[in-house]
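G., the chain you wanted modeled:
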Amino acid sequence: MTFEREFVTLCERYATLGREFLTLRERYVTFGVEFVTLRGRYATLGLEFVTLRERYATFERKFVTLRERYATFE
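Predicted structure as tokens:
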């Protein structure tokens, strides 16, 4: 009977470890999805920053052109 109890205890421990492993794997998957989402957001922010920088450069070129025209007008 002692062997049977020990065997049952080992089976229960194995089942518990299996559940813990599944939980860890689910957490890892969740973390991976969150990381990919953050990376996607960072990439989006990077693209938005590049777009803003391009708009600023365009604005700066227009401003220089206007200043040159104004200097010619004077």
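The two ends are 108 Å apart (CA to CA).

Shout if anything looks off.
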